[in-house]
Design goal:
The chain is α+β, with helices and mostly antiparallel strands. It has five helices and 16 strands. The chain has one domain.
């Protein structure tokens, strides 16, 4: 076979794969169907995290799906875990054989490889630093998640270092992509028992795919609904827009636009928010560097922080400005 025929065959196969995706025969919310695209996905938008609705909810970061009209944004959202001990491994776009291939997310006992993508809110490229399961309950790290301790009693505070390097790249490999390979632990996690996205996640993704406002070609990478407090709750008052997007919901209109400062969560760079709660942003330069080693079931003490507490309405003597009488109302006046 001549080089020309090989090249033509390769081009034909790429077009065929793209046509399958364009016909809507694939989905980005389940691993059952293959999706590949010739065009790189847009950068991840920057947005604030809606407050956690209650115990047992796990944060599922937003991502770019792909449909007949191109890339569309699937808002980040809080989802009830399908079983005790379930952790979400986000999906990611990876470069392979000249195409961007979607690797679907899944539920499992351990967070696996998600391309090294910095989705924010605990998903900083490796593992998950937003919480862990213990004794049948999920404990939330207040340093990187928006949680109201009057509603969610199982919380702790482990500081995640705020690096000034902001990385919003949404794909692994290829030109300009994240250069990351799975660690030994992530390879092990990939072989564990997995559960596909829940029915609520599927409905959330499908609603996004049919909403023209979610199309990257329409919102220019800044969706007006970037995150929701629950799956499918696009019209909820606590849904938020991306920074710089047209704000079409009540929550977004009332938000302050002060980003995380170099001091990190709870530091001087976050002063000025009602209720004293910092505005947590996805992709705000947070890197997977923790002061101390956070292991599941073993909260790490950092600067007097890190002890899980149950039923406390405020931190007691914890450092970095959290626990001064008003900082633990978990976002009253934030995203409302």
């Amino acid at each position: 076979m001549t080089a020309t025929r090989v090249e033509n065959l390769s081009r034909y196969l790429r077009l065929l794969l793209l046509a399958v995706a364009m016909l809507g025969l694939s989905t980005t919310a389940t691993g059952a169907v293959f999706v590949s695209v010739a065009i790189a996905p847009p950068a991840l938008p920057v947005y604030a995290q809606p407050i956690c609705p209650g115990p047992g909810y796990i944060w599922v970061p937003g991502y770019w799906g792909y449909g007949p009209e191109g890339y569309y944004w699937v808002p980040g959202t809080w989802v009830i875990a399908p079983y005790v001990g379930a952790l979400w491994t986000p999906g990611y776009w990876g470069w392979a054989n000249g195409l961007y291939v979607w690797h679907a997310g899944y539920w499992g006992p351990t967070v696996g490889f998600y391309g090294g993508i910095n989705y924010g809110f605990g998903y900083f490229g490796v593992g998950y630093q937003g919480g862990y399961w213990r004794d049948g309950g999920f404990y939330y790290n207040r340093s990187v998640t928006n949680v109201n301790v009057n509603v969610v009693r199982n919380t702790y505070n482990t500081t995640v270092v705020n690096n000034s390097n902001i990385n919003r790249v949404s794909y692994n490999g290829g030109a300009g992509g994240i250069n990351a390979q799975p660690t030994t632990a992530e390879q092990t996690a990939m072989r564990e028992r997995h559960t596909d996205a829940t029915a609520a996640q599927m409905r959330h993704q499908q609603a996004s795919s049919t909403n023209r406002a979610m199309l990257a070609s329409v919102n220019q990478g800044r969706p007006s609904i970037a995150a929701t407090p629950r799956a499918g709750a696009f019209a909820h008052a606590d849904s938020v827009s991306a920074e710089g997007a047209v704000k079409r919901n009540r929550s977004a209109e009332g938000m302050r636009t002060q980003s995380m400062g170099a001091a990190g969560p709870g530091g001087p760079g976050n002063q000025g928010y009602p209720g004293g709660h910092p505005k947590q942003h996805a992709n705000a330069g947070m890197q997977p560097q923790v002061q101390g080693s956070l292991q599941p079931g073993q909260p790490q003490q950092v600067h007097g922080q890190g002890q899980p507490h149950q039923g406390q309405n405020r931190a007691e003597g914890q450092g970095r400005g959290e626990g001064q009488g008003h900082g633990e109302r978990g976002g009253e006046g934030h995203n409302r």
